[in-house]
Amino acid sequence: MKKEIKGKTKFGEPILICPRCNKGMDKIKKHEIIIDTCRKCNGLWLDDKEIEKIIEAAHNAANKDKAFKKKK
Ligand SMILES: [Zn+2]
Predict the structure, then answer these.
(1) Where are the domains of the chain?
(2) Global pTM?
């Protein structure tokens, strides 16, 4: 179970609590995906579907890279 504390992040989402350190986690945005990270233990929290989005984004990036290399 993920815990939330009162307050919202700059993305308007609830702040999560790191299950390891019980500290509020930061949110970082990468490729339109918001990831919760803990500054203390460098832990990551991914919501449902976020891992799929990351895989998709990584896949797309890899394909773009291939297309770029082919042109050369
Ligand atoms: Zn932590």
Answers:
(1) 3-71
(2) 0.60
